[in-house]
Amino acid sequence: MKLPIFIADAFATKAFCGNPAAVCLLENKLDEDLHQKIAKEMNLSETAFIRKLHPNDNFTQSSCFGLRWFTPQNEVPLCGHATLASAAVLFHKIKNVNSTLTFVTMSGELKARKEEDGIVLDLPLYPAHPQKLHEVKDLIKTAIGDTLVQDVRYSPDTKKLLVRLSDTYNRSFLESLTVNTENLLQVETTGKVKGLILTLKGEPGGQTQAFDFYSRYFAPWYGVAEDPVTGSAHTVLSSYWSEQLGKKDLHAFQCSSRGGELIISLRSDGRVDIKGGAALVLEGTLMA
């Protein structure tokens, strides 16, 4: 079987930045076990599979598709950057004629809207509730040692733990922080936490660009030690920082070694628009 496959760097304006995702276009139904095998072979944080919903659909004219996401280890219920990469492939490579695409996913219908300066994702917004520190102190201590923590929240919808570092730290501290992900699987075995978000309040603009907040994201429970730029984490971060800062429009930066910018707008319908760019870096045929 031959499958068209692409790699696009999401939340990036040029190649080799942001977060790479593989995107497979499925003309026909794929054997269930092949999804995971292909994702493991690609060995990126996510591989996306776009499928037609009806026999007469085609990737150029149709506006609604099925979408699934796999890490090298698991299928996941939501992935923002691989959705952005999927939309970029359809818009920019396949030349889909529609300005808005709808993806039917495990997290409901997600929309991607083409704009001149990027692609806007319409994603769920997930609240993060106060979390008792004593219940997760071993996890936090294992991950970041004696780093000062200002707030801890938990998102039951996404199973993500949000840890806000002290406002006394700056962006360069977060970027250089060594996070121990290897031992987290031994410390957190309950299944309650599937992702760890570290976040920090932004700084006013000066010599560098102003951002409302910074973050890094770790998901060893899904086989991803650190994810470079994470749309799904920002469905939680957007809710938290909007509340903290009293703002609906936010500018975020994820401080991985590759880095990525996200433009965020909380909507009146309880969802969030997250905009980013994408750069196509590879096109080929998978021999499955």
UniProtKB/TrEMBL annotation:
InterPro entries: Phenazine_PhzF-like. GO terms for biological process: maintenance of gastrointestinal epithelium; negative regulation of transforming growth factor beta receptor signaling pathway. One of its GO terms (cellular component) is cytoplasm. Keywords: Isomerase. It comes from the Eukaryota. The active site is at 46. Gene3D superfamilies: Diaminopimelate Epimerase, Chain A, domain 1. One of its GO terms (molecular function) is identical protein binding. PANTHER family: PHENAZINE BIOSYNTHESIS PROTEIN, PHENAZINE BIOSYNTHESIS-LIKE DOMAIN-CONTAINING PROTEIN. Belongs to the PhzF family. This is Phenazine biosynthesis like protein domain containing. The lineage of its organism: Eukaryota, Metazoa, Chordata, Craniata, Vertebrata.
